Automatic annotation (TrEMBL):
One of its GO terms (cellular component) is cytosol. SUPFAM superfamilies: alpha/beta knot. Keywords: Methyltransferase, Transferase. Signal peptide: none annotated. It comes from the Bacteria. GO terms for molecular function: RNA binding; RNA methyltransferase activity. This is tRNA/rRNA methyltransferase (SpoU). Residues 28-170 form the tRNA/rRNA methyltransferase SpoU type domain. GO terms for biological process: methylation; RNA processing.
Length: 176
């Protein structure tokens, strides 16, 4: 019998209230100065799909409610815990003080290839994703515990922020 697509009812997804009560995986995403509201909405959806603990929207990153975020988030703004923080560097330092390991996702000297990344057991991680043009700011790179780089093999030197979030989340959960 050939495979068939499952109906929405067959997927047995959590309700928003069940999602809010469910245990989350020990990581969060930090979006710093993300210009595209569609990218923000897509990352909300990714954070929901991979049950992130929280999403931090920093600097100029747009916040719900906004129709462009809502359009791509498909309801994830209601399920995913989020907070707007003006100063990303202060947030990084606060998370570190609270025991989180902070990883900037960027191409930088001394970066660790995602292929070689092994998360420390029983440690929560915060992954910083930067502006679509300028990337993660130097101050955050300097403050981070590590810099992760996604290997790329084509002519382009960057990935869309929403794609990057999906890769990072999936990789982290597979390794944990």
């Amino acid at each position: 019998m050939p495979p068939r697509k499952l109906s929405l009812d067959e997927l047995n997804r959590l309700s928003v209230s069940d999602f809010k009560e469910a245990e989350k995986f020990a990581y969060c995403l930090i979006l710093d100065d993300i210009r595209s509201l569609n990218n923000v909405g897509s990352v909300f959806r990714t954070a929901d799909a991979f049950r992130a603990e929280k999403l931090y929207l920093c600097g100029i990153t747009g916040q719900p409610p906004h129709r462009d975020i809502t359009k791509t988030a498909l309801g994830a703004t209601e399920s995913v815990a989020w907070e707007h923080v003006t100063d990303v560097t202060a947030l990084v330092k606060q998370l570190q003080a609270d025991g989180w390991l902070v990883a900037a996702v960027e191409q930088a000297d001394g970066s660790t290839s995602l292929a070689d990344f092994s998360p420390e057991p029983n440690k929560p991680y915060a992954f910083v994703l930067g502006n679509e043009v300028t990337g993660v700011c130097d101050e955050v790179i300097q403050a981070a515990d590590l810099v992760l780089e996604i290997p790329q093999f084509g002519t382009k030197h960057s990935l869309n922020i929403a794609v990057t979030a999906g890769i990072i989340c999936w990789d982290f959960l597979q390794k944990k």
